[in-house]
Amino acid sequence: MDALRSILEWIVSLLGPFVAPDWGALIQLLPIIVLLAVAGFYGWVFLRFRRAGPRRIGMPPLPAASAPAGIHLPGPSLAPLLISVASAALFFSVALGGVALAVSAAAMVLALVAWGREAVREYDAIGAKGHDTLAIAAQSRAAVASPPDGVHLPPPSLLPFLVSLATGVLLFGAAIGLPFLLLGALMTAFALIGWLLDAGREYRAVTEADRTGHLVNPTPKAAPRISLLLFSLLFVVVGGAQMGVFAAPAEEGGATPGPSGAPTESGAPSESGAPSAGPDDGITLITAMGVKFEQSSFELPADTASQLRFHNMDVGIPHNIAIHEGSADAVGPELWQGEIFNGDETRLYDIPAFPAGSYSFVCTVHPNMVGDVVVK
Predict the structure, then answer these.
(1) Of 72, 207, 292, 366, which residue has the fewest beta carbons closer than 10 angstroms?
(2) Per-domain boundaries in the chain
(3) pLDDT in tens, 110-161
(4) CA–CA separation, 198 and 192 (whole Å)
(5) What CATH architecture does domain 284-375 belong to?
(6) How far apart, in whole angstroms, are the C-alpha atoms of residue 222 and residue 356?
(7) How many angstroms separate the Cα of 269 from the Cα of each of 266, 273, 279, 285?
C-alpha cells in the first residue's frame, strides 16, 4: 500500500505543474520561448536553403524567361519589405514617442500608399482597363482569349483590401476615441456593402448561366479611387481635429474655462509653453497634450489623502492617471487608477494615502506616458 501511495504521489507531483502552473514563472520564460521559436524558424529556413539544390554563386545568371502569352506576372515590389520595416519601427517608437513616433508613422503611411498604388495598377491591368487583355510584365499588351465556355472567372476586386483597412481604422478608433471609431464603422459598412453587391452580381451571373446555358463574366469595375481618396481625407481631417490642428486660436487675454466651467484668471500659456496652472487652490495640476504628460514628476504628502487635478488637452483622445509602484523606468504593480476620459476635459482626482517613497504615474491607455511621483 505504501508503494502504491508513493507512486500516486509521484504521478501527482508530475501532473501538478500542468494542472496548476506557476504563471509568474511561465511569463518570465516567455522571452526565452520566443527566442527559441525565432531561432528554430531561422534554423528551418537554413536547412531548406541547404536542400534547395545546386547553387550558382560565381556563375552567370540564368537567362530571363518571358511569361507565356495570356499569363500576367506582377513585377517585383519592395513594398512588403518596406511595410514590414516601417511596422517594426512604428511598434518600437510607440514607447519612445516624440519625433521617432512621427517619423515611423509617416514611413508606414508612405509604404502603405506605395503598396496601394501598385495594387491599383495591377487591378487596372488585370481587369478594369482591359477586360480582354493582360499586361505582361516587361512586355507590351498581348491579346488573350476569353475564358473557355462554361468557366466562370470572378473579376478582380479591391474590396477585401478596403474591408481590412476599414477594420483596422475601426479597431484603432476603439482605442483612440469616438471620432475614429465612427469613421472606421462608416468605412467598414461601405466596404462590406460594396462586397455584398459584388457577391450579388456574381450570384446572378452564375444563376443566369444555369438558366440559359450561356455564361457571361461580369465586367470588372474600376478601382474605387474616389472612395479611397475621400476616406483618406476624412482620416486626415479627423486626426487633425483630435490633435487640435484645426482648432481656432484663442484670443489674446481671453479666459479659458476651468474645471468647474468658470474661466481661469489667464487662459494664455505660460512662458514655458505649458498651460496655465488653473485655479490657485494649491492642488497640483497635471496636463496631457500630444499623447504625453507635460510634467515629468509631482509630489504628494505621505500618509495623507490628497487631490490631483488632471487636464486632458488631447481632444477626443482618452487619458487618465494611474499610480504604480516603482520609478518611471521600472513601472511596478498598479496601486490606484483615476477615471479615463476624453479631452478637452479636466477631472479632480481623490488620491488615497501612500507611505513615503518613490512611485510612478502612468496613462492606462497609453503606457508610454509615464512620470515620477515623490511621496514625502
Answers:
(1) 207
(2) 76-144, 157-245, 284-375
(3) 888 888 778 777 777 665 444 444 444 334 444 445 555 556 666 777 788 7
(4) 10
(5) Sandwich (2.60)
(6) 67
(7) 8, 6, 14, 14
